[in-house]
Amino acid sequence: MTTNGQWRLKSRPDGMVKESDFEYVEEPVGSPGDGQILVRNLYLAFEPAMRGWLNDVKSYVPPVQIGEVMRASTVGEVVESKHAGFAAGDIVSGMLGWQQYAVADGEPGMMGRLTKVPEGVPPQLVLSALGGTGMTAYFGMLDVGEVKAGDTVLVSGAAGATGSVAAQIARIKGAAKVVGIAGGPEKCAWLRDEAGCDEAIDYRNEDVGKRLRQEFPKGVDLFFDNVGGDILDAALLNMAQNGRVVICGGISQYNEKELPSGPRNYMQIVIRRLTVKGFILVDYFHRAGEAMGELGQWVAEGKLNHAEDIQEGIENTPKTFLRLFSGKNLGKQLLKL
Amino acid sequence: MTTNGQWRLKSRPDGMVKESDFEYVEEPVGSPGDGQILVRNLYLAFEPAMRGWLNDVKSYVPPVQIGEVMRASTVGEVVESKHAGFAAGDIVSGMLGWQQYAVADGEPGMMGRLTKVPEGVPPQLVLSALGGTGMTAYFGMLDVGEVKAGDTVLVSGAAGATGSVAAQIARIKGAAKVVGIAGGPEKCAWLRDEAGCDEAIDYRNEDVGKRLRQEFPKGVDLFFDNVGGDILDAALLNMAQNGRVVICGGISQYNEKELPSGPRNYMQIVIRRLTVKGFILVDYFHRAGEAMGELGQWVAEGKLNHAEDIQEGIENTPKTFLRLFSGKNLGKQLLKL
């Protein structure tokens, strides 16, 4: 009998999430019943939005409960299948959580649904450029932001998994200028050299407002925000008239104990006649095929670069999650099991 | 020779605007040169946005300078005309400021442009329901908010000149439910009895969040905000999925010394997939005829009620302006000269 190492939510984080908010547990690997599939996870994926799932508040998905295995996107290999649609050896993506093994149902909704990864596609790619983060960038830029040729585009959190794809989609679609904001010279160099950005702003070492005024003398047509806080406020003061702001996320806000003050410059929405839109990927799941097809083609054509930060070992799972909030990851944060 | 009493900006307000920020001056009435028109003002109009014009910051119009006559919308009667388009006795609207008389040019842009008031139209109506505030509600509800039959609609500052027209336009367009927020039982009664609201929320005496949850169990489809602050935050927590927020103004913010914290609940824009839009009336001036035509028809048909709070006497001008910020006015704040 094999054991299944799991990380379960032990306590709700108070402010910054800590390793001790999770508890490592081992239990016997489960047996698939009729219609079920036993999967061995190969990679776990980490996203800033997962921080929100730890709070006991109503949101677009239910919170993770104390004692539950932490929810997360995964890819794995089918070990045993009692479901006609899957066979041992299939590579599958799903949301099987922070554990080495999981028994999945066929398609009981978003959380347990498995998708086969086509042969020839590196498994970790369906967690990054072709996965939730890539699709978030895809629909956020194209459907919500309506990026078009000639736009001046700003992306915050641009060295992250979603931001880097968003910046490159703007480039592919003919944006006049693409500027990414990230933390540190290494990430900024990568944005310029690999991720289609004309310029990069290092928010840790530069005056973001000053750089925005320099880079966008006529204002930003489209701002794709993953960060919120001071960066959103600086961007609002540098939007072009009739500019669009896509609120994809707000990583600067997720670990605050008290609800932080909102964007102080929000009256710029009026003064500059802005349109600010939010969105959630789940609303676009029915178009996942379209997104994965186009994203996959861009990857194959060499138009879409992607970076992955791959940590290893189930014991390092919470530590890997925390890398997102200290800004350690360049590109998609993954853990290999 | 007649004297022209004027109120000029004496000092920039520090926080709440005060009467002493303005200075009363008398000077001889000017003489119109070729192409100019001498107008005697009959009514001065007051809007919350005028508070923003007193700050020395770049915005959608230049700030009023120290020593300048305070900018304001007006209606008046032509006393003497050396312009082919105007004759003595014409009733004209324009932005002639806080003064008894003004020499206006024909059409040198927004500030000095005069528009003839058609015969039979009460002059003060072109400062309220058929003027800037009515048109702001018109374009804000129809073009920006895209109100449609079946929408659940919330309006803040609903007993004000713009809010009350906005609420009634929602009613006219077949909204399923229209709720207004205002301060005090008198205004709330007026909203229910005269201004097309199904319900009114008295923010001074009621828990706005609790009432919103009661009145909108399925959420607000369209929120037309004139207030900002706590009311915007409460509304964000009660928006329907894919709801629209029109930011028309933020009167709760205008007199703060420090830039207030923005909407703390702004991440609801993501969670609820909201679209938040700002706008400025000047972008719609080319369609003023359309708006005034339709608004005028609704007034004539008895579908659009309007209230005016009319103070009197040039000496009371700054005091009348301050009524806006203590919430004294029901409907359009005017001063009769």
Taken together, the total number of domains of chain A comes to 2
Biggest interface goes to:
A-B, 32 and 32 residues
Architecture of the largest domain in chain A, CATH level 2? Alpha-Beta Complex
| Helical proportion of chain A, percent range | 10-25%
Q: Tell me, what's the shape of chain A?
A: globular
Beta-strand residue fraction of chain A = 25-35%
Q: Termini of chain A, distance in Å?
A: 19 Å
The ordered H/E elements of chain A are EEEEEEEHEHEHEHEHEHEHEHE
Radius of gyration of chain A: 20 Å
Mean pLDDT of chain A: 93
The largest β sheet of chain A comes out as: 7 strands, mixed
The quaternary organization reads as homodimer
Low-pLDDT regions of chain A: none
Say which CATH homologous superfamily of the largest domain in chain A is assigned. Medium-chain alcohol dehydrogenases, catalytic domain
CATH class of the largest domain in chain A, please?
A: Alpha Beta
Secondary-structure class of chain A: alpha/beta
Our count of helices of chain A gives 8
How many strands of chain A?
Answer: 15
Predict the CATH topology of the largest domain in chain A. Answer: Quinone Oxidoreductase, Chain A, domain 1
Write structural notes for this entry:
The structure is a homodimer of 337-residue chains. With 337 residues, the first copy, chain A, is α/β, with parallel strands linked by helices. Chain A folds into two domains: 3-128 and 307-336, Quinone Oxidoreductase, Chain A, domain 1, CATH 3.90.180; 132-282, NAD(P)-binding Rossmann-like Domain (Rossmann fold, 3-Layer(aba) Sandwich). Helices cover 22% and strands 26% of the residues of chain A. The first copy, chain A, contains eight helices and 15 strands. The first copy, chain A, has helices at residues 132-144, 161-172, 185-193, 208-215, 229-236, 268-271, 288-300, 317-323, and strands at 3-9, 22-28, 37-46, 74-81, 91-94, 101-104, 115-116, 152-156, 177-182, 199-202, 220-225, 239-247, 275-278, 308-312, 332-336. In chain A, the strands form three sheets. In chain A, strands 3, 4, 5, 6, 7, 14 and 15 form a seven-stranded mixed beta sheet that branches. In chain A, strands 10-9-8-11-12-13 form a six-stranded parallel beta sheet, sandwiched between helices. In chain A, helix 1 (132-144) packs across helix 2 (161-172) and helix 1 (132-144) packs across helix 7. Chain A is globular and about 65 Å long. The two termini of chain A are 19 Å apart. The mean pLDDT of chain A is 93. Chain A binds chain B through residues 59-60, 228, 233, 247-250, 253, 259-280, 283, and chain B through 59-60, 228, 233, 247-250, 253, 259-280, 283. Strand 13 of chain A pairs antiparallel with strand 13 (275-278) of chain B, so a sheet runs across the interface.
